[in-house]
Amino acid sequence: MIEDNSYRPLAGAVPRHLKTQYQTWLAVAAMLLLGAAMLVLPWTLLIAVPPLLLLTAWLGGEGQMAAFPSRQDLLLLGALGLQGLIWIVMLRLHGEGADGLADAWPFALGMVTLLAFSRAKMPVTWLWAGLALGSLAASGWAVWQRVVEGTVRASGHEPLHAILFGNLGLLMGLLCFAGLSWSFARRERWPWSLLLIAGGLAGLVTSAFSGSRGGWIGLPLAIWVLYRGHGRRLSLSWRVTLIAALMALLGSLYVMPQTGVATRVDHAIDSMRQYVAGDDEMTSVSARLEMWRGSSQLILERPLMGWGGSGYQAAMRERGAEGVQHPSLGRFWHAHNDVLDAWVKRGLPGLLALLALYFIPLWLFARGVSAGSGERRALAVAGTLVPVAFIDFGLTYSFLAYPAGGLVYALLITILWGLYRQAR
User: Fold this and answer.
1) Is residue 342 part of a domain?
2) Residues of the chain whose pLDDT is less than 50?
3) Rounded to whole angstroms, how far apart are CA atoms 402 and 409?
4) Quick check: is 385 in a domain?
5) For the segment 268-315, what is each residue's pLDDT rounded down to a tens digit?
6) Other Cβ atoms closer than 10 A to 150
7) Would you say 409 and 395 are in contact if contact means Cβ atoms under 8 Å apart?
8) In a domain, 411, yes or no
9) First-residue to last-residue Cα distance in the chain
10) Looking at residue 11, what is its pLDDT?
11) Taken in order 17, 19, 25, 30, is the CA torsion positive or negative?
């Protein structure tokens, strides 16, 4: 009788239980690195997240994401790909060679991340753990920089600065609050809920100690998204308690002299009054308003094709030399507004690509904010908050003009969507 050895694994093959174990470790490493490298570690380490997820996918089984790619997956991949492609094509048309590659690669990594989720399976636990621990570490560093080192504004690692550092810290805090639907549905609800609440509050502290005012504009809309996801499932007493605690915290951050929040707000109000009164002194507020005015006029001259990156800066310098605007504004290389920056540099295609990048993920996630299981609803709230926050940040600063901003956006959107698609 011939012995049938066909069932035996090939020599050198990794046993199934080890594959599962390695897959878990790689997924944990990717999620913890995501939370740490956004602000605490150098942001370039975020580049390692997609390869870790690809290794996780290589060890994974077939069909971890149902019916991939679905129409929604293709829409998200298309939004990321279009943003990167328009950046490359339009800057090349303006004679800037391969400069667009420096801005497009984060969106390519985002596409790779989403493709990895077609086979990668990971517990969502480590996403929330990474975000909460990263937010707590970032707030501790912000307090250290501001109180111990005596810096004017907490700013993190170079090339990040106070605006990027503070707004990304605020986003991490909001994402921690988004995870509460997941934590309250768990058996060990209180340890996880307290960790996420601490991470959420830490994000507010990071933002306050950075002095970044732009992120505060969108807080009411972000709170509304959180309320849509969580608030209507809480009793009235819990709603009142949480609102009172939040207002008390925001009030404390405002009045504490160490944060500098009151000084920054008062300065913004005074600067606005001076600008309306016709004062020529350049402040951070009046400079933004003048840059927006100048960028809008340049858009009217070339609405379809834009000016390109170097062309925009040259045109702004020429306006300063002609006395149309303050000469100092020519040194800024972006328009301090993502919509204006995309349109003035990359024309109408750049504007449309940016709007797709914002509103396709917003449409995909917003439908699940008020429905589904605790895990799935938490991911939907988080996925909605990411474009809402970036639209807010982009009102007063060109966040996506920085590779760090583009990479954080692309990774968060694709990771949250991949987990959302896998959630029950």
Assistant:
1) no
2) 1-12
3) 11
4) yes
5) 666 666 666 566 667 778 889 899 999 999 999 999 999 999 999 999
6) 7
7) no
8) yes
9) 49
10) 43
11) negative
